[in-house]
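Design a sequence for this backbone.
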């Protein structure tokens, strides 16, 4: 049985906490195609993120930059240890 307390969303980490993964100003081009432009994202423990968009919107490119498959043309994808 669901109760009101079981529907309470988890608390977000404090704004001062270090993100598990961060992307700052991520930009990626493939020739003349601009896949991502100046994307900023911080991923904290306990958060759930969804990446939505139509085909060709740059979702896979963004995620590949975050986990190191593609190097961004501009910006940085950072783990806390490298900060």
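Sequence:
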């Amino acid at each position: 049985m669901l109760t009101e307390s079981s529907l309470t969303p988890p608390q977000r980490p404090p704004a001062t906490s270090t993100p598990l993964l961060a992307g700052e100003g991520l930009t990626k081009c493939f020739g003349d195609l601009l896949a991502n432009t100046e994307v900023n994202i911080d991923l904290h423990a306990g958060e759930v993120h969804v990446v939505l968009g139509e085909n060709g919107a740059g979702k896979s490119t963004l995620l590949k930059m975050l986990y190191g498959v593609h190097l961004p043309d501009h910006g940085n994808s950072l783990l806390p240890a490298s900060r």
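The chain has one domain: 19-82.
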